[in-house]
Design a protein that fits this description.
The chain is an alpha/beta fold and 392 residues long. The protein has two domains: 165 residues, NAD(P)-binding Rossmann-like Domain (Rossmann fold, 3-Layer(aba) Sandwich), CATH 3.40.50; 188 residues, Dihydrodipicolinate Reductase, domain 2. It has 13 helices and 14 strands. The protein binds nicotinamide-adenine-dinucleotide. Nicotinamide-adenine-dinucleotide binds next to strand 1. The site of nicotinamide-adenine-dinucleotide has 22 residues, from strand 1. GO terms for molecular function: nucleotide binding. It comes from Marinomonas mediterranea (strain ATCC 700492 / JCM 21426 / NBRC 103028 / MMB-1).
Length: 392
Protein backbone atom coordinates (compact mmCIF):
# COMPACT_ATOMS: atom_id res chain seq x y z
CA UNK A 1 0.00 0.00 0.00
CA UNK A 2 0.88 3.67 -0.17
CA UNK A 3 3.96 4.64 1.80
CA UNK A 4 2.38 6.57 4.68
CA UNK A 5 5.76 7.94 5.74
CA UNK A 6 5.41 10.43 2.86
CA UNK A 7 2.27 11.82 4.50
CA UNK A 8 4.34 12.72 7.59
CA UNK A 9 6.43 15.24 5.64
CA UNK A 10 5.95 18.93 6.48
CA UNK A 11 3.11 20.55 4.53
CA UNK A 12 4.37 22.88 1.82
CA UNK A 13 2.78 26.31 1.35
CA UNK A 14 1.70 26.17 -2.26
CA UNK A 15 0.49 28.61 -4.92
CA UNK A 16 -0.69 28.36 -8.48
CA UNK A 17 -0.17 30.58 -11.49
CA UNK A 18 -2.96 29.86 -13.96
CA UNK A 19 -5.25 26.89 -13.58
CA UNK A 20 -8.16 29.32 -13.09
CA UNK A 21 -11.88 28.93 -13.58
CA UNK A 22 -12.68 26.83 -16.63
CA UNK A 23 -9.06 25.93 -17.34
CA UNK A 24 -8.38 22.43 -18.55
CA UNK A 25 -5.75 21.28 -16.11
CA UNK A 26 -5.98 23.42 -12.95
CA UNK A 27 -8.30 20.98 -11.19
CA UNK A 28 -5.93 18.04 -11.75
CA UNK A 29 -3.12 20.04 -10.10
CA UNK A 30 -5.27 20.85 -7.09
CA UNK A 31 -6.48 17.25 -6.74
CA UNK A 32 -2.99 15.83 -7.15
CA UNK A 33 -1.20 18.30 -4.89
CA UNK A 34 -3.60 18.48 -1.95
CA UNK A 35 -4.71 14.86 -1.72
CA UNK A 36 -2.12 13.78 0.87
CA UNK A 37 -1.92 17.03 2.86
CA UNK A 38 1.55 17.62 1.45
CA UNK A 39 0.67 20.89 -0.27
CA UNK A 40 -1.71 23.55 1.08
CA UNK A 41 -3.03 26.14 -1.40
CA UNK A 42 -2.38 29.53 0.27
CA UNK A 43 -1.91 31.91 -2.66
CA UNK A 44 -2.40 32.28 -6.38
CA UNK A 45 -2.46 34.37 -9.53
CA UNK A 46 -5.01 32.03 -11.01
CA UNK A 47 -6.16 33.85 -14.09
CA UNK A 48 -5.10 36.27 -16.81
CA UNK A 49 -8.19 38.22 -15.67
CA UNK A 50 -7.31 39.37 -12.11
CA UNK A 51 -10.89 39.87 -10.95
CA UNK A 52 -12.00 36.43 -12.14
CA UNK A 53 -8.83 34.96 -10.61
CA UNK A 54 -9.53 36.57 -7.22
CA UNK A 55 -13.13 35.37 -7.11
CA UNK A 56 -12.02 31.89 -8.05
CA UNK A 57 -9.20 31.84 -5.48
CA UNK A 58 -11.53 32.94 -2.67
CA UNK A 59 -13.92 30.12 -3.63
CA UNK A 60 -11.00 27.73 -3.25
CA UNK A 61 -10.40 29.03 0.29
CA UNK A 62 -7.45 31.34 -0.42
CA UNK A 63 -7.44 34.62 1.55
CA UNK A 64 -8.46 37.57 -0.68
CA UNK A 65 -5.19 39.40 0.04
CA UNK A 66 -3.25 36.39 -1.21
CA UNK A 67 -5.14 36.20 -4.54
CA UNK A 68 -2.83 38.34 -6.63
CA UNK A 69 -3.35 40.30 -9.84
CA UNK A 70 -0.25 38.82 -11.43
CA UNK A 71 2.60 36.43 -10.69
CA UNK A 72 5.25 39.17 -10.40
CA UNK A 73 3.42 40.78 -7.46
CA UNK A 74 2.77 37.38 -5.92
CA UNK A 75 6.41 36.27 -5.96
CA UNK A 76 7.63 39.67 -4.72
CA UNK A 77 5.18 39.89 -1.81
CA UNK A 78 5.14 36.20 -0.87
CA UNK A 79 8.93 36.02 -0.68
CA UNK A 80 8.83 38.78 1.98
CA UNK A 81 6.32 36.97 4.23
CA UNK A 82 7.41 34.67 7.07
CA UNK A 83 4.64 32.32 6.00
CA UNK A 84 5.22 32.91 2.27
CA UNK A 85 4.86 30.20 -0.35
CA UNK A 86 7.54 27.50 -0.67
CA UNK A 87 6.43 26.21 -4.06
CA UNK A 88 4.36 27.25 -7.04
CA UNK A 89 2.74 25.25 -9.84
CA UNK A 90 2.58 26.91 -13.23
CA UNK A 91 -0.45 25.87 -15.29
CA UNK A 92 -0.59 28.60 -17.92
CA UNK A 93 -0.23 28.39 -21.73
CA UNK A 94 3.23 27.39 -22.96
CA UNK A 95 4.55 30.82 -24.01
CA UNK A 96 4.55 32.01 -20.38
CA UNK A 97 6.36 29.08 -18.73
CA UNK A 98 9.91 30.38 -19.12
CA UNK A 99 9.29 33.88 -17.73
CA UNK A 100 7.10 32.73 -14.84
CA UNK A 101 9.44 29.88 -13.86
CA UNK A 102 12.47 32.16 -13.97
CA UNK A 103 10.73 34.81 -11.87
CA UNK A 104 9.72 32.21 -9.25
CA UNK A 105 13.17 30.63 -9.03
CA UNK A 106 14.85 34.03 -8.67
CA UNK A 107 12.45 34.74 -5.78
CA UNK A 108 13.65 31.52 -4.09
CA UNK A 109 10.51 29.48 -4.76
CA UNK A 110 10.47 25.82 -5.86
CA UNK A 111 8.58 25.25 -9.13
CA UNK A 112 6.39 22.56 -10.67
CA UNK A 113 5.94 23.65 -14.29
CA UNK A 114 3.67 22.34 -17.00
CA UNK A 115 5.11 20.85 -20.16
CA UNK A 116 6.63 21.71 -22.56
CA UNK A 117 8.72 23.52 -19.99
CA UNK A 118 10.01 26.16 -22.48
CA UNK A 119 10.02 26.97 -26.21
CA UNK A 120 13.78 26.33 -26.58
CA UNK A 121 16.43 24.02 -25.16
CA UNK A 122 18.59 27.05 -24.31
CA UNK A 123 15.85 28.47 -22.09
CA UNK A 124 15.24 25.10 -20.38
CA UNK A 125 18.93 24.68 -19.62
CA UNK A 126 19.11 28.23 -18.28
CA UNK A 127 16.23 27.45 -15.89
CA UNK A 128 18.00 24.28 -14.75
CA UNK A 129 21.14 26.31 -13.96
CA UNK A 130 19.15 28.92 -12.00
CA UNK A 131 17.38 26.20 -9.98
CA UNK A 132 20.71 24.53 -9.22
CA UNK A 133 22.37 27.82 -8.18
CA UNK A 134 19.50 28.55 -5.77
CA UNK A 135 19.24 24.99 -4.39
CA UNK A 136 15.68 24.69 -5.70
CA UNK A 137 13.65 21.90 -7.28
CA UNK A 138 12.26 22.44 -10.74
CA UNK A 139 9.81 19.62 -11.51
CA UNK A 140 7.85 19.13 -14.71
CA UNK A 141 4.26 17.89 -14.67
CA UNK A 142 4.38 14.71 -16.67
CA UNK A 143 1.22 13.62 -14.87
CA UNK A 144 0.95 10.12 -16.37
CA UNK A 145 4.26 9.14 -14.83
CA UNK A 146 2.68 8.49 -11.42
CA UNK A 147 0.67 5.49 -12.65
CA UNK A 148 1.86 2.45 -10.76
CA UNK A 149 1.91 0.07 -13.70
CA UNK A 150 4.27 2.44 -15.51
CA UNK A 151 6.67 1.84 -12.63
CA UNK A 152 6.05 -1.90 -12.79
CA UNK A 153 6.99 -1.72 -16.48
CA UNK A 154 10.15 0.16 -15.57
CA UNK A 155 10.98 -2.44 -12.94
CA UNK A 156 10.56 -5.34 -15.40
CA UNK A 157 12.99 -3.63 -17.79
CA UNK A 158 15.48 -2.86 -15.00
CA UNK A 159 15.33 -6.46 -13.76
CA UNK A 160 16.07 -7.67 -17.30
CA UNK A 161 12.87 -9.70 -17.71
CA UNK A 162 12.61 -8.47 -21.28
CA UNK A 163 16.29 -8.95 -22.14
CA UNK A 164 17.99 -6.42 -24.40
CA UNK A 165 15.45 -3.84 -25.60
CA UNK A 166 14.89 -3.86 -29.37
CA UNK A 167 11.81 -1.78 -30.16
CA UNK A 168 10.02 1.05 -28.31
CA UNK A 169 6.72 2.13 -29.83
CA UNK A 170 5.00 5.10 -28.24
CA UNK A 171 1.83 6.88 -29.18
CA UNK A 172 -0.57 9.51 -27.92
CA UNK A 173 -3.14 9.90 -30.66
CA UNK A 174 -6.59 11.26 -29.84
CA UNK A 175 -9.33 12.37 -32.21
CA UNK A 176 -10.70 15.44 -30.41
CA UNK A 177 -9.32 17.93 -32.94
CA UNK A 178 -10.25 16.02 -36.11
CA UNK A 179 -12.25 19.09 -37.14
CA UNK A 180 -11.44 22.79 -36.74
CA UNK A 181 -12.80 22.89 -33.15
CA UNK A 182 -10.52 25.81 -32.27
CA UNK A 183 -12.98 28.19 -33.93
CA UNK A 184 -15.20 27.83 -30.84
CA UNK A 185 -12.79 26.56 -28.21
CA UNK A 186 -10.30 29.03 -26.66
CA UNK A 187 -8.35 26.19 -24.94
CA UNK A 188 -7.77 24.59 -28.35
CA UNK A 189 -7.21 27.91 -30.15
CA UNK A 190 -4.02 28.89 -28.32
CA UNK A 191 -2.57 25.43 -28.94
CA UNK A 192 -2.68 26.07 -32.71
CA UNK A 193 -1.00 29.49 -32.40
CA UNK A 194 2.82 29.28 -32.64
CA UNK A 195 3.22 32.48 -30.60
CA UNK A 196 1.53 30.82 -27.62
CA UNK A 197 1.99 27.11 -28.23
CA UNK A 198 5.60 27.26 -29.43
CA UNK A 199 7.29 25.55 -32.37
CA UNK A 200 4.95 22.52 -32.22
CA UNK A 201 1.37 21.55 -31.43
CA UNK A 202 0.77 17.80 -30.97
CA UNK A 203 4.45 16.95 -30.53
CA UNK A 204 4.70 19.27 -27.53
CA UNK A 205 1.13 18.99 -26.26
CA UNK A 206 0.92 15.19 -26.08
CA UNK A 207 3.99 13.68 -27.80
CA UNK A 208 6.20 14.79 -24.89
CA UNK A 209 4.07 12.72 -22.46
CA UNK A 210 4.56 9.49 -24.43
CA UNK A 211 8.23 10.32 -25.02
CA UNK A 212 8.81 10.80 -21.28
CA UNK A 213 7.05 7.53 -20.45
CA UNK A 214 9.21 5.69 -23.00
CA UNK A 215 12.33 7.25 -21.46
CA UNK A 216 11.18 6.54 -17.90
CA UNK A 217 10.40 2.87 -18.60
CA UNK A 218 13.47 2.00 -20.69
CA UNK A 219 16.08 4.57 -19.63
CA UNK A 220 17.46 4.43 -23.19
CA UNK A 221 19.08 7.49 -24.75
CA UNK A 222 18.03 8.63 -28.22
CA UNK A 223 20.87 8.73 -30.77
CA UNK A 224 19.10 10.22 -33.77
CA UNK A 225 15.60 10.84 -35.02
CA UNK A 226 13.61 11.56 -38.14
CA UNK A 227 10.28 13.38 -37.94
CA UNK A 228 7.44 13.86 -40.39
CA UNK A 229 4.70 16.29 -39.38
CA UNK A 230 1.70 17.76 -41.12
CA UNK A 231 -1.49 19.73 -40.49
CA UNK A 232 -4.52 17.92 -41.86
CA UNK A 233 -6.66 20.89 -40.84
CA UNK A 234 -4.84 23.33 -43.11
CA UNK A 235 -5.48 26.45 -41.03
CA UNK A 236 -3.23 24.97 -38.30
CA UNK A 237 -0.09 25.29 -40.41
CA UNK A 238 2.75 25.78 -39.60
CA UNK A 239 1.87 23.74 -36.51
CA UNK A 240 1.18 20.04 -36.93
CA UNK A 241 -1.90 18.11 -35.85
CA UNK A 242 -0.24 14.79 -36.69
CA UNK A 243 3.36 13.58 -36.52
CA UNK A 244 5.45 10.43 -36.70
CA UNK A 245 8.93 10.32 -35.20
CA UNK A 246 11.32 7.45 -35.96
CA UNK A 247 14.10 7.10 -33.42
CA UNK A 248 17.33 5.13 -33.08
CA UNK A 249 18.60 4.55 -29.55
CA UNK A 250 22.19 4.28 -28.32
CA UNK A 251 21.92 0.54 -27.52
CA UNK A 252 20.80 -0.27 -31.09
CA UNK A 253 17.06 -0.30 -30.31
CA UNK A 254 14.69 1.47 -32.69
CA UNK A 255 11.33 3.09 -32.09
CA UNK A 256 8.46 5.14 -33.35
CA UNK A 257 6.29 7.80 -31.71
CA UNK A 258 2.92 8.79 -33.18
CA UNK A 259 1.39 12.00 -31.85
CA UNK A 260 -1.96 13.03 -33.27
CA UNK A 261 -5.06 15.08 -32.56
CA UNK A 262 -6.86 13.85 -35.68
CA UNK A 263 -7.09 10.13 -34.87
CA UNK A 264 -10.87 10.26 -35.43
CA UNK A 265 -12.86 8.20 -32.97
CA UNK A 266 -9.98 7.71 -30.54
CA UNK A 267 -10.15 8.87 -26.91
CA UNK A 268 -6.42 8.96 -26.00
CA UNK A 269 -4.67 5.87 -27.36
CA UNK A 270 -1.63 6.70 -25.27
CA UNK A 271 0.23 3.40 -25.45
CA UNK A 272 3.80 2.41 -24.74
CA UNK A 273 5.02 -0.94 -26.07
CA UNK A 274 8.52 -2.11 -25.26
CA UNK A 275 9.86 -5.14 -27.09
CA UNK A 276 12.87 -7.01 -25.71
CA UNK A 277 14.70 -10.09 -26.95
CA UNK A 278 12.75 -12.34 -24.51
CA UNK A 279 9.43 -10.58 -23.87
CA UNK A 280 7.36 -7.46 -24.47
CA UNK A 281 5.28 -5.17 -22.27
CA UNK A 282 2.48 -2.80 -23.17
CA UNK A 283 0.72 -0.11 -21.10
CA UNK A 284 -2.32 1.92 -22.18
CA UNK A 285 -3.42 4.99 -20.26
CA UNK A 286 -7.13 4.24 -20.78
CA UNK A 287 -6.64 0.97 -18.85
CA UNK A 288 -3.96 2.13 -16.43
CA UNK A 289 -4.51 -0.60 -13.82
CA UNK A 290 -3.23 -3.30 -16.18
CA UNK A 291 0.14 -4.01 -17.75
CA UNK A 292 0.40 -6.61 -20.53
CA UNK A 293 3.43 -8.89 -20.21
CA UNK A 294 4.07 -11.23 -23.12
CA UNK A 295 6.89 -13.75 -22.91
CA UNK A 296 7.78 -15.39 -26.22
CA UNK A 297 6.29 -18.91 -26.38
CA UNK A 298 4.02 -18.45 -23.32
CA UNK A 299 0.46 -17.23 -22.86
CA UNK A 300 0.10 -13.48 -22.54
CA UNK A 301 -0.28 -12.21 -18.92
CA UNK A 302 -2.26 -9.25 -17.65
CA UNK A 303 -0.54 -7.88 -14.52
CA UNK A 304 -2.98 -6.10 -12.22
CA UNK A 305 -2.21 -3.07 -10.06
CA UNK A 306 -1.89 -3.60 -6.33
CA UNK A 307 -1.23 -7.35 -6.44
CA UNK A 308 1.41 -9.12 -4.34
CA UNK A 309 3.22 -10.47 -7.38
CA UNK A 310 4.35 -6.98 -8.39
CA UNK A 311 7.79 -5.81 -7.37
CA UNK A 312 7.19 -4.99 -3.72
CA UNK A 313 10.30 -2.83 -3.28
CA UNK A 314 9.26 -0.64 -6.11
CA UNK A 315 7.05 2.40 -6.77
CA UNK A 316 4.53 -0.03 -8.28
CA UNK A 317 3.48 -1.02 -4.75
CA UNK A 318 4.54 1.93 -2.59
CA UNK A 319 2.32 4.24 -4.68
CA UNK A 320 -0.74 2.05 -4.34
CA UNK A 321 -3.53 4.06 -2.70
CA UNK A 322 -6.66 1.94 -2.65
CA UNK A 323 -5.64 -1.70 -3.00
CA UNK A 324 -6.13 -4.08 -5.89
CA UNK A 325 -9.45 -4.42 -7.66
CA UNK A 326 -10.79 -0.91 -7.09
CA UNK A 327 -10.45 1.14 -10.27
CA UNK A 328 -7.81 3.79 -9.87
CA UNK A 329 -6.76 6.48 -12.25
CA UNK A 330 -5.74 9.91 -13.31
CA UNK A 331 -5.82 11.85 -10.02
CA UNK A 332 -4.00 9.09 -8.20
CA UNK A 333 -1.22 9.32 -10.81
CA UNK A 334 -1.02 13.08 -10.36
CA UNK A 335 -1.06 12.69 -6.56
CA UNK A 336 1.81 10.20 -6.80
CA UNK A 337 3.81 12.69 -8.84
CA UNK A 338 2.99 15.51 -6.41
CA UNK A 339 3.97 13.27 -3.45
CA UNK A 340 7.37 12.87 -5.11
CA UNK A 341 7.65 16.63 -5.54
CA UNK A 342 6.91 17.03 -1.81
CA UNK A 343 9.65 14.55 -0.90
CA UNK A 344 12.31 16.31 -2.96
CA UNK A 345 11.25 19.85 -2.07
CA UNK A 346 11.36 19.02 1.65
CA UNK A 347 14.71 17.30 1.15
CA UNK A 348 16.08 20.34 -0.72
CA UNK A 349 14.83 22.58 2.11
CA UNK A 350 16.81 20.38 4.52
CA UNK A 351 19.86 20.52 2.21
CA UNK A 352 19.55 16.75 1.79
CA UNK A 353 20.62 16.41 -1.85
CA UNK A 354 21.31 12.71 -1.38
CA UNK A 355 17.56 12.11 -1.03
CA UNK A 356 16.81 14.37 -3.98
CA UNK A 357 19.25 12.46 -6.17
CA UNK A 358 17.99 9.08 -5.00
CA UNK A 359 14.31 9.88 -5.60
CA UNK A 360 12.56 9.43 -8.92
CA UNK A 361 10.48 12.43 -9.99
CA UNK A 362 9.98 14.21 -13.34
CA UNK A 363 12.80 16.71 -12.89
CA UNK A 364 14.08 19.58 -15.00
CA UNK A 365 16.17 17.15 -17.05
CA UNK A 366 12.94 15.41 -18.06
CA UNK A 367 11.64 18.81 -19.14
CA UNK A 368 14.89 19.58 -20.99
CA UNK A 369 14.80 16.27 -22.86
CA UNK A 370 11.22 17.02 -23.93
CA UNK A 371 12.31 20.37 -25.38
CA UNK A 372 15.46 18.87 -26.98
CA UNK A 373 13.28 16.20 -28.60
CA UNK A 374 10.87 18.86 -29.91
CA UNK A 375 13.72 20.94 -31.37
CA UNK A 376 15.16 17.91 -33.14
CA UNK A 377 11.72 16.87 -34.42
CA UNK A 378 11.13 20.32 -35.93
CA UNK A 379 14.66 20.40 -37.41
CA UNK A 380 14.05 17.00 -39.04
CA UNK A 381 10.48 17.58 -40.20
CA UNK A 382 11.23 21.03 -41.65
CA UNK A 383 14.31 19.79 -43.55
CA UNK A 384 12.62 17.26 -45.78
CA UNK A 385 12.36 14.69 -42.95
CA UNK A 386 16.11 14.14 -42.73
CA UNK A 387 17.70 12.13 -39.90
CA UNK A 388 19.22 14.39 -37.25
CA UNK A 389 21.56 13.55 -34.38
CA UNK A 390 19.68 13.75 -31.07
CA UNK A 391 22.59 15.45 -29.26
CA UNK A 392 24.90 17.97 -30.87
P1 LIG B 1 -6.23 26.74 -20.44
O1 LIG B 1 -6.20 27.71 -21.55
O2 LIG B 1 -7.41 25.86 -20.26
O3 LIG B 1 -6.02 27.51 -19.04
C1 LIG B 1 -4.97 28.42 -18.85
C2 LIG B 1 -5.19 29.17 -17.54
O4 LIG B 1 -4.07 30.01 -17.31
C3 LIG B 1 -6.43 30.06 -17.55
O5 LIG B 1 -7.03 30.01 -16.26
C4 LIG B 1 -5.84 31.46 -17.82
O6 LIG B 1 -6.66 32.51 -17.35
C5 LIG B 1 -4.55 31.35 -17.04
N1 LIG B 1 -3.49 32.28 -17.45
C6 LIG B 1 -3.02 32.53 -18.68
N2 LIG B 1 -2.00 33.41 -18.64
C7 LIG B 1 -1.83 33.72 -17.32
C8 LIG B 1 -0.94 34.57 -16.62
N3 LIG B 1 0.01 35.28 -17.24
N4 LIG B 1 -1.06 34.64 -15.26
C9 LIG B 1 -1.99 33.93 -14.60
N5 LIG B 1 -2.85 33.09 -15.22
C10 LIG B 1 -2.77 33.00 -16.56
O7 LIG B 1 -4.89 25.89 -20.56
P2 LIG B 1 -4.67 24.37 -20.10
O8 LIG B 1 -5.21 23.47 -21.12
O9 LIG B 1 -5.08 24.19 -18.68
O10 LIG B 1 -3.07 24.27 -20.23
C11 LIG B 1 -2.19 24.95 -19.36
C12 LIG B 1 -0.83 24.28 -19.44
O11 LIG B 1 -0.98 22.94 -18.98
C13 LIG B 1 -0.25 24.18 -20.84
O12 LIG B 1 1.13 24.38 -20.79
C14 LIG B 1 -0.55 22.75 -21.29
O13 LIG B 1 0.42 22.25 -22.19
C15 LIG B 1 -0.50 22.04 -19.97
N6 LIG B 1 -1.34 20.82 -19.89
C16 LIG B 1 -0.79 19.72 -19.34
C17 LIG B 1 -1.52 18.57 -19.19
C18 LIG B 1 -0.86 17.40 -18.52
O14 LIG B 1 -1.37 16.28 -18.60
N7 LIG B 1 0.25 17.58 -17.81
C19 LIG B 1 -2.83 18.52 -19.65
C20 LIG B 1 -3.40 19.67 -20.20
C21 LIG B 1 -2.64 20.83 -20.31
Amino acid sequence: MFDDKVRELPTLRWAMVGGGKGSQIGYAHRCGATRDGLFRLVAGAFDIDPQRGREFGVKLGVLPERCYDNYQTMFALESKRDDGINVVSIATPNSTHYEITKCALLAGIHVVCEKPVTFTLKEAEELKAIAKDHGLILGVMYGYSGFQMVHQARSLVQNNLLGEIRVINMQFAHGFHSQEVELNDPGAKWRMNPNISGPTYVLGDIGTHAFYLGQLITGLAVKKLCCSRQSFVKSRAPLEDNAHVMMHFENGAVGMLWASAVNAGSMHQQKIRVVGEKASIEWWDERPNQLIYEEQGKPSQVLERGMGYLDSHDDAISSDRIGAGHAEGFFESWANVYARFAVVINAANANDWQTVNATWFPDVDAGIEGVRWLERCVESADNDEKWVAYRE
